[in-house]
Each structure stands twice: as C-alpha cells, then as structure tokens.
C-alpha cells in the first residue's frame, strides 16, 4: 500500500474526479487514469492471483503487455468482460471492476496452497499427473483444474450490445502512433496518399506520452494530422492481426470507456486493405529473472516511469532499481527528480557509463555495481530485497517498497511475424529484429530494432548463490512458468523451443509472451548449451491482444447470421399457421396444424387428403436451371446418367447426376421445351452446386459446346397439385393446354396460361398420385396459390408441408439425395439402375461405375424396412445389426435413412442402407435401441401402389 | 484474405469473390472407357500436392463466373500468376 499520487505532473485531468470500485471498495481517480494508475494512486499494489500457484500479483507493465493485472468489468447483464488488463481499462464514473482467480478474496486466497505445493507442480504437471485413468478426466481432473487454475469467468447471458464493421482501403496504414508512427504519418500527410494511423491507446502518442519534454511536439503534430484531409487517426483501435496481401484486422473500442452506454455499437471491426503498411509498434521492456521477481511492487522500470510521468503516480515511496540496461537508470533518475526516494540502483554490470554514475551521485542515489537481487521480501507487496555481489558474497538487505527491473528491450514484432516477415538475431539487443519483409511492409522506430535503446547486457537470469531448484524466478508471469521449469523441460529431453513452449506453456497465455518469450528463449539456450539462433523462435499469431467475439461476429448473428430465403408463398403459409423448417437456407412450411393438431395428426390429415382428394404444396424452393443452346441436349447427355438426345420437346425425364467418382450427387425432373431449351430442376439444397458443376464442365472440359446456363430458381414459383382430383380442379383454370390423359401424359410439360398467367405446367408426381407442378413467374405465385385454394375448396383442397411430402414420397420409394444417399451411394446401390443409360458411351461418372470397389459384393444398398410391430416407427439414423446376440460392439451392417408413419398403409415404413441389401429381401434384421431391440424385415422400397396405377390416370 | 487477379476481369479482387476449384491441368480423359482401373483411379484421386509451385483452378464465382488457372506457392501462399483456362501451363 505504498503508491501515491504526486502533487503535480501527468496528463490526467485533475479537475475531473472519477469514482469507481474494485472488488467492491470505492476509490477515486482522475479523468485520464487507467484502472491501474488510479488504483496505484490509492496505494493498491495487489491486483490479482496468478494462474497456477495463485501467488499474489501486482502490476508488471503499464500497457497492453501487462500479464498479471487481469480484471473483469461488469456493467449489467450480458456486459461482463473478463481478462481485461487493468493497465488498458480507462476509468469512468461508476466503473465496477473485480479481480480474478481468487477465492474467497484477493488477500486470502485458499488456492494459494498451490504455491506451497510448488514442488509438486513442475512443468508438464498436468500432462504427467492426470494421465490415468482416462475416465477421471471429464468428471474429476478437468473440473478441478478449471476451478483452481483459471482466468475470469465467461459471461453467461446474451450480449445486448451490437458491433459494427467496416471495410477500409488506404495507400498507407501505420500501426502505432508513437513518435515514429506520427513522423511517418506527418511525412505522408502532404501527399495524395490515403493514410490511416491507428493506435491501441486512448490517446495517440505512445512513448511520447511518458515524456513531458515531447508533449508540445505531440500536440502540434496531432493538430497537423487532424488538419490533413488525407489522414485518418484512430485511437482505442488495436491492429490484432496481419493477413495476406496487406490485409489488417483492427478493432476500435467505441463505448467501453463511457460512463453511460449509448445506443451506438460497442466496438467496430476494421478490415483494412492497405497498399503499404508501416509498423511502429515500439518495444517492450524485458523483466529480469530472479527469485520472487513477481511480488507485487516488482515491475518494469519503464512502466514505473509511465505511471510517474503520464499519470502523476509514484509506484512507491522508496523505489529501488535492478538494472542490466542503461534505460532503467534514467527511469530511476526521473523518480528522484519527481521527489520519490530512490533507495538504491543495483546493476548486474561491473562497469557503467561515467555520466550515469555522476548523475546518480548528484541525485544522491546509492549505487551497487556487479550486484544482483537474490531475494525479494514481502508477500502481498515489496518490503525490501536482499542483494549480493554476482559471486554471491556480501549479501545485504535493503528496504524499499517497489523494485524496478530494467532487463533491456524487445522490439514488438508481433504483426511483422503475422505477415511472415523473416527475422535476424541482434546480439546486442538480445532480440529478434525484422529482417526481410514478406509483404509491402516496413518497421520504423523501436520495433525495427534500429533504435538507440542505450547500452545494456543480455542476461538469461541474474546470478544467485541460492539453489536454483528452490527458488521461484518467474519467466512467464501469466502462465506461472519459472526458470526452473524450463531447465526441467530441457533435462527431460526437449530441444526445440516449440516443444519447450508447449511443455512448459511459456508464452502461451493471453499475453502471448510479450514480456516472457525472449527470457524463455535465453534460458532454454543456456540450458541446451546452444546459441539462441539454433534454438529458434516461436511464431506469433493473431490476435495481438484478446478481442471480443462480438467484434469478430459483428452483425452476423441471430436473424442476420445467414439469410433466410423465403418463397413467394411463404407469407400465406405464415398467415395460415404453418410450422416451418429450414432446408438449406430456405424456410419451408413443414405442416399446417389445424384446430390444435400435433404434427402427427396434421401430417396424417395432409397425407389422407393427397391420397383421397387433392393436396397443394409449395415447391418453389426446387433448384431450377434454364439450359439453352444448340448443344443443350448433347450437354445434358454428357452430364446426366440417362439419355437426353431422344427426349421429345414437351416431355420430361428424371435426371440422375453423378460425381466423376460414380456416386449420386443430385437428381431432379427436367423438361425439354424446344429442341434447344430445357427447364432443369435440382434438389433444393443442391441448386448452386449443380450449376457450378455444370459450368465447370462447360467452361473447362467441353468449351466447344454452345450452351448457356442460367439459374432460374427464384424466377419461378412452383405449386404442386397432387391427388386424384387434381385434374378436375385444374381444368377450368387453364387455357391453351389440353389436360386429358392421352393429350397430356405423365412426365410431360405444356405451356399455356393459368388464371391468365403464363405457365410452364409439368405433369409430374413426387407423391405417386396424379399430379401437376405449376410454374408461374414468381410474382404471381401467391395470387395463383390463393386462386387455387378458392377454386379447390369444393374439392377439399388441403395444403401440405414438407413432412407430408416426405411420407408420400417414401411410400413410393422415391429417394431424397443427401438423406437416403450420403455421397457413397451409386445408382445401383440406390436401386436406380433404370435411370442409367447403359448404351451411352460416356457420361459424368460412368467409368467409375465399373471400378472394382463399385462392382464388388457387400456394398451398402438402399432397401425398404418393415418393422415386425407395425406401430413402431424406427428412428432415422438408427444402426442395424444382423445378430442382436453378438457381444458389444456389435457388427453394424447399415442404418435407417428415412422412417415415417404411413397413414395410407396404416403402419410404419422405412428406407435403410444395408450391406448387401438387395440380397437380403425378406431377411429379419435388428435395430438395437435403448431398452429394446426392434425387429424389422427387409423389403422392397416401393410400399404403395407398386404398379403405378394411380399415376397413369 | 488473399487478393486474386482475375485474368478475365483483369482486376485484383478479394478472395471472398472466388472459389477454389482444385488442381489445374487435369483434363478429363477423352475416352474413359478405354482406361485401365488404375489409370482411371489416378485421374480421379491422385493429385500432386507439391511443396512450392502449385497449378490450381479458381472460379470468379461472385464476379464474371469464369474458371481460370493460377500458380500459387503453397509455402508462401503467394500467387505467381493467373491465366485463362485453355492457355498453356505456366
């Protein structure tokens, strides 16, 4: 409890007080504070508990690299955001934040027992310990681990916010608005280039925000950029991923910093395609690795200076510095000049720049060179430290309440890595720096590595006289990985950094190892006795910082997740109480309940109407393709299994479409209107795929054919009239078409008008009854439907839905491609040999029908299945066995593909794909279900009117 | 998201306008019936799957609708060239 607000300084607005709460206690800060700076100013040092050991943790950093201080912010139902970095949460009036991974409270956390048991929780602990027995994982190990080791809780309610999205195009995208990024933007501001400059913080400036000497330059520069019409500056916008061809994803946070949530989107996803990209992401200071380097109050020296100079907050009353790099000295001096006591500067180096020594002396700071911190005292906050000479001698205890670490600098190369730019190892920096670009991108400023960071040494861990195995010197703070863990991984035989990373989990937390990767690499390199460049570098992957699912989903959720396609008759069905189902993207009426019938009663009634009178069905979703041209018949002859060239105009044919591997992929009835014009139909779900396949053959295999293909699915409304009274109903409404059986036989098409509207009238049937499919231009669909309903009232016309359609077609053994077939079914397997033109020399898939495994015995074949008990309706997908007495796991010989109650037959019927099914006619098979085994006999697929007498009337 | 140059539209457009269509320059045999089972199986199933230059087909499905060929490096995921269907292998 030793941080405090300085009397002056910082960029916070001291005239605007803001009150907020953390773990239920109320605090006050200033406008411009982050949660971290405001809590520090209130003396709070303890921000969270660590992931695995539940060790008390404070702030390590001051920006988005922060690994420790993860908090949850709640602002009402559905607005709970876990795992936010306190250093990146702007405070607003009424902000309610809580700490995570502790129970019952942050100060008294029972999970901290894990810290005492640390010796039992080494690297790979979970993998080693919880391997056996396997069955314990789901019920015991995993829930226990999830309770004990974790981050914040996921929200359980639906997110009420909405999220925007925008595509942006620019000539130059600059990521990072520190001095280097701003300079790059200024340089481009006078040009004709469209420039976007984005920065993740609440105000642009980056490192300049920490340096009051640069504030006037910053003000002027931002004014110039604001005045430049070609430059867009976006704050609170994180470039989270760099994808192919200079495509960068960024999320702009719009309302999270507002005290009152407005009506606008919470966040906006920017998809930016840039002509060129400049990365100016800066650099992140590295922690030093020594015992208890995670006690709250031990932090990066640069972070302390940020709190001091940007927020006017001292991190302690008496701060000490542990340095391996000159930059930390300047941070310590800044504290001294601001009136904060600097207890000591410890530097692991034996010699140091004389100017720095002189300045320390002038500021009255005690300096120890060639020394290292070997222990930090205090548990919930730093109380002091013990330092010793690098040889371990002269251990001395020094009191302090904050300890700054200056371990050198790591260029932020995350987006460079996403863009697959290559890296070079910089020995002096002890870091990988950008080398050759893979996109139109370059790095400027600190992230390029070509930056004067000052001098320092690269050190994997501070020297200590203590037993390395007994100390916890943290490398990855967020995932609780210590130097000891990495040494253990190497001793256990891991050699590649990729494996060491996964085994120890170093660098795998939500911070993606921003502060830990290079220390981990250096330690692994030391332990392996091989240079860093031979140990490798792990790849950074998006996102740079965690992003919300909301921002990524945008408007693509709920009703807008995907379009719902509706037929012209959909509105009528809705007004008449239809129950709908989705078929592909189409919304189709499944059944029309009346007077409170359930589905079963409604479907039975609809089926009875079709078989005894007339039913009306909206078949508009059928895929339709107009095939036109002198070679249209030749083209269809090559595409479909059956012969098309001899088909007379005015006649229809059932077409079966195979893939080149011989398996059924689609089917449908198509009509020849004139010698050079066909009206094709496809399955509802297959229309786009079929058209694509046809285009493919036409464009790339047979470009010599003169044929045009046009999708007409949405141009036609299709109304099926099915039932013995269909013709009588239709007769008075149709002009120009003779409906008499001999003039207009089954599988014919005629053009004329119906109710004055031009129609392509098909005489076809998917029910086994006398039937017509009336095609009219889509805009007339609903009017015609209503006319037919009116005219049909006297005939008992009954609208039926897809469920009754399924029952009626299954009674006739008509298959549904994709339900009764699964991409491994040939025409022979499906009992459709009659639809294959044996005399045709070739068609798509023909050669494959003679492949050895297609002609082999024992293939699964489509057959009928009749349960022994006619009242039992099998479940679709149920597995079928020959011998129910067999020990589990039984040999499954097939499965049920379609199964319904047949009202016409007064019993259940089913179709099934069964090994060698055609040879099993009459055989009794078994369907094991929970609690019972159902007996069923293999039968023909055609259950109703096998002679087709009802069709040809 | 890649940018793909359509050789028919002569423009670079975003990948979402295109559909991938498998390896290129695998012509459907003119007389499948004359082929051995092995040769037919090779035509159906065997693809080169190279590490590096890959000849492949794309369709500008949400644009001009044409199929065309491309050479893309499977390691760098960069297009070397795109060209019209029917033109010789690059």
Can you describe this structure in just a few lines?
The complex is a heterodimer of chains A (953) and B (90). By secondary structure, chain A is α+β, with helices and mostly antiparallel strands. Chain A is built from 23 helices and 50 strands.
Description:
The complex is a heterodimer of chains A (953) and B (90). By secondary structure, chain A is α+β, with helices and mostly antiparallel strands. Among the domains of chain A are: 4-127 and 141-148, 2Fe-2S iron-sulphur cluster binding domain, sarcosine oxidase, alpha subunit, N-terminal domain (Ubiquitin-like (UB roll), Roll), CATH 3.10.20.440; 164-283, FAD/NAD(P)-binding domain (3-Layer(bba) Sandwich); 570-621 and 715-809, Gyrase A, domain 2; 625-672 and 686-711, Aminomethyltransferase beta-barrel domains (Alpha-Beta Plaits, 2-Layer Sandwich); 852-953, Aminomethyltransferase beta-barrel domains (Elongation Factor Tu (Ef-tu), domain 3, Beta Barrel). Chain A has 23 helices and 50 strands. In chain A, the strands form 13 sheets. In chain A, strands 9, 10, 11, 12, 13, 14 and 28 form a seven-stranded mixed beta sheet that branches. In chain A, strands 40-41-42-43-39-33-44 form a seven-stranded mixed beta sheet. Chain A has a six-stranded antiparallel beta sheet with strand order 46-47-48-45-50-49. Chain A starts with a strand and ends in a 14-residue tail after the last strand. With 90 residues, chain B is mainly beta. Chain B has a single domain, classed as Folate-binding fold (2-Layer Sandwich), CATH 3.30.2270.10. Chain B is built from one helix and six strands; from the N terminus they run E-E-E-H-E-E-E. Chain B has one helix at 37-45, and strands at residues 3-6, 11-14, 19-23, 53-59, 67-73, 78-84. Chain B has a four-stranded antiparallel beta sheet with strand order 3-4-5-6, with no helix packed on it. In chain B, strands 1-2 form a two-stranded antiparallel ribbon. In chain B, strand 1 (3-6) and strand 2 (11-14) form a beta hairpin. Classes of the chains: A alpha+beta (953), B mainly beta (90). At the A-B interface, helix 19 of A face helix 1 of B.
